[in-house]
Amino acid sequence: MPQRAANLLQAATQVLHAQDEAEALQVIAQAVHADGWHSVIVHSYDDDWRIAHAAYVNISDEDRQALDTRAMTAEERAATFGPAYEPYRISRSYFFPAEQPGALTVIRTMHLPCSEGQAPGSWRPDDAAYIPMRCAENKIIGRITIDGPLDGNRPDQKAFEKLEAFADLAALGISRLRARARQREAEHTVSAMMNAVGSLIWLTYDDDRPPYFNEEWYRFTGGSPEDEVSHAFSQHCHPDDLPETRRSFRAAVAARAPWAGEYRLRKHDGDFAWMLERARPLFSSNGDYIGHVCTAVDISAEHHAKEELERERDRLAMAIDASGGGHWEAEYTGKEPPNSKPIRRTFDQRLLDIVGYAQSDFPGGHGWDRIVHPDDKAVKAQQDRLDSVDHVERRIREYRVLHKDGSVRWVRSSYLTRSTHDGLPLRQVGFVMDITDQKRAEQELRRERDRLAIALMAAGAGLWEGTFPNGASQKHGEILYVSPRISEIAGYPTGWPASHDDWDAIVHPDDKVAKEAQDAQHIKGNLPHVSREYRIRHKDGSTRWVRTAYITTDDHGRPGQTVGVVLDITEQKRIEQTLHRERDRLALAIEASGGAFWESEPARPGSDKQGAILHHSSRMGEIAGYANGVWPRSHDEWDAIVLPEDQVIKDQQDAAHRRGELPHVAREYRIRHRDGSIRWVRSCYLSSAASGEPRSVGFIMDITNERLAAQRLQRERDRLALAVEASGGGFADAEWSGETLANPSTVKLTTISNRICELLGYSQDEIKTAAAFRNLIHPEDRARNDQQDQQYFVSDLPRITRETRFICKDGTIRWLRA
Asked: d(Cα 293, Cα 193) in Å, to the nearest integer?
């Protein structure tokens, strides 16, 4: 017997360490069976007397089904421990001997099928007994039903008391199992709630236990329960925030007080987020301090918004100062209807400066309305009334005002109204800014746009607008608008092209690679403005030249809209090709004439010299005695061989050309040849930007022989003049043309000597033209002379000699031999 008691005590200990309640009931059933009972049924009840778990020993499946079929209701089960069963109670157990009246009925209701007719004194098959399992509060949480003692005897009170003691220990174990289960369920529920909140939650303990962190903490910080230790917070808190956060939190822990603070916490991606933490002390039911419950939420958006708000306030203050605007305020009683007069209105001096007033001479109250432009006053008043009726809080409008000096200024006015809940105004705050310059700029912009439209139309150019490429996967942006002229240039219907691919499809194959390379550089940002010329294939199969240019506007630091133009330059290209051919012919003509040409950059601003020589023919060097085709390399080298007495005049002409006073420069001057001789040259040049870039183009020719011939001719003329004057006669020069035969009046008189004028009594100023000289011939001789002149031009006679009468200034007739 002592061994059996020890076995029951050991079984009770096993119940305390069971994994769950079902395992505990099985331990109980096996222990009772080992204590000397053949069949054992152990039931545990919930708070509503329903069977929670069951354990069986030596009960067949068929008997279990029979028991389930006759299962009691919860009320019937509770009654088995009530007054009606008191006659069958032994100690705290219940025994139902088959021979006792009514017991068999109870047994059949509660237990296995039994048979009647067994002799009294020993355990009968119809006997039954059960022991309640009571917890500390004397609450029945189950029962142990026993049948078939192995010794065949009915148990006495001592045997029941032993089983009752075991049942009490088993009930205590089950109660503790249930308490632990409830605790685990509560912890699971609390953990689920803490994880479902979406905030970072953790518990700090007063003892040596590490803090508990919910799943959101690990998700947010990227840590894990295996990695996080008691210093997990220190590992993630920003180093600049950790000292003060730790100090203030420890002070709250020492005072067992709530705590709140903001700090930065490292996230799983390495960035820091601003957190708002609140912590409250946690106490046990008996008032002992357990630790602090901490919750933290990400307030980065609010923190950044607050910082941005502060920056916006600073920018607003700076903008108001920089804009030169001013503000005004108006106060109302809050009892008057909308659009009523304020009880007080003030204007700052910056606002009054816009209209040229001082505080002392500006009419108060509604003085501002008095200076509104008459043409805008009615519209402004109507808008004020409508805004008041519609309870519009914020108003922005533009109108004109009259400056104190009588000029008209444009202003932009904006103000806010704060009203009562009934819609009655309480206070208004307004801002007024002078936008006169902006309005003028807008008008000028409209004029510029009109001029641009006219220019594009006049130039025959087309306009397109599109978006910038979105990402590396997009070769081009989208085309938003294309003018009809672009479609016309390519020979397609209006609306074409619908995309950049449509246009690229008609680009000449030889030009496509260069075009795509420029587009790629533009997308990378290396080529902000794209301008180029290339060929396209017209719809009719012909090749056309186009000039395109486009630029992408910036949108707050990001690529925005792309605007471009397309111009048909096929005719221009044809002209350029013709011009190249003409230039080649000109170069040949210049070389044939023995002259040379040069091309140079224009003079640099502020310089007193011409720009660098870009190109010159080899003949230019040959004129000065240099035959290497390289000299001169600059205008300075050429100027070095100009004679000093001619260089002064040359420099003056060049300076006048640079100032625009002498567009075309033509001159003759002397240079020193490489062999030391003096050579005369004729030079002419002009500057133009017709090709797009300013250039100076010049021609230079060796006229030394021409100069020598002219000098010889002049000497001959001088000798002739001396001979004529020595003979007492005079001489005249005249230029004739083919037209002279039909019209003698076209003769051009170039020279007439003083002697002829003296003979006729006139001055040289009075006989400047051949017609004036011809009119002095006697009418009877004039026709004869004209006839002789005509015969002279068609004959091979070297000279003609005749005597002619002239009418002198004093009216006399004088005969002259010519």
From this structure: 14
pLDDT, one tens digit per residue, over 379-399 is 888 877 776 666 566 678 889
Q: Give 803's contacts (C-beta < 8 A, 6+ positions apart).
A: 815, 816, 817, 818
**pLDDT of the residue at 116:** 41
Q: Residue 576's closest CA among 611, 608, 610, 533?
A: 533
Query: Is the per-residue pLDDT at 578 higher than 70?
Result: yes
CA atoms within 13 A of residue 535's CA, in its CB half-sphere:
11
Q: How far apart are alpha carbons 544 and 460 in whole angstroms?
A: 14
Could you tell me which CATH number the domain at 2-182 has? 3.30.450.40
CATH of the structural domain 574-702, one choice from 3.30.450.20, 3.20.20.70, 3.30.9.30, 3.30.565.10: 3.30.450.20
What is the structure's pLDDT at 577?
84
CA proximity to 587, closest of 578, 577, 597, 601:
597
Classify residue 448 by its DSSP letter. H
Domain limits, the chain:
2-182, 197-303, 324-440, 460-563, 574-702, 724-817
Overall average pLDDT of the 625-646 stretch:
89
- What's the pLDDT at 119? 40
Q: Name residue 93's beta-bridge partners.
A: 90
User: What tokens does 66 get?
Assistant: 């029979």
For the segment 60-103, what is each residue's pLDDT rounded down to a tens digit?
888 887 776 666 777 877 777 888 888 888 888 888 887 776 55
pLDDT at 117: 38
What beta strand segments (E) does 357-436 contain?
394-402, 408-419, 425-434
CB-count burial class (<10 Å; 0-12, 13-18, 19+) for 574: exposed
Q: Is the peptide bond before 497 cis (omega within 30 degrees of 0)?
A: yes
In the DSSP assignment, the letter for residue 146 is: E
Could you give the residue ranges of the DSSP H alpha helices within 197-255?
215-221, 232-236, 242-254
User: How far apart are alpha carbons 184 and 250 in whole angstroms?
Assistant: 30
Q: Is 295 left (phi over 0), alpha (psi -120 to 50) or beta?
A: beta
Backbone dihedral angles phi then psi of residue 370, each to the nearest 5 degrees: -70, -25
Q: CA 731 to CA 757: how far, in whole Å?
A: 10
In the β-sheet with 529-537, what is the strand arrangement from edge to edge?
A: 479-482, 461-467, 558-568, 543-555, 529-537
CB burial class (10 A; 0-12, 13-18, 19+) of residue 456?
middle
Which residue type, as a one-letter code, is found at position 772?
Answer: A
- Asked if residues 31 and 7 have their Cβ atoms less than 8 Å apart, the reply is yes
What lies within 8 Å, CB to CB, of 490 at 6+ separation is: 496, 497, 503, 506, 536, 538, 539, 544
Q: Which CATH class is domain 460-563?
A: alpha beta
Give the tens place of pLDDT for each residue, 103-114. Answer: 555 554 444 444
pLDDT digits (tens, 9 = 90+) for 492-528: 999 999 988 899 999 999 999 999 898 888 888 888 8
Asked: is 724-817 a CATH 4.10.1110.10 domain? The reply is no
* Mean pLDDT (the chain, rounded): 83
Q: Assign 429 to helix, strand or coil.
A: strand
Q: Fill in the DSSP letter of residue 229.
A: -
> What is the longest distance spanned by two Cα atoms in the chain?
203
**H/E stretch holding 147:** strand 140-149
Spatial contact of 309 and 360, defined as CB atoms under 8 Å apart: no
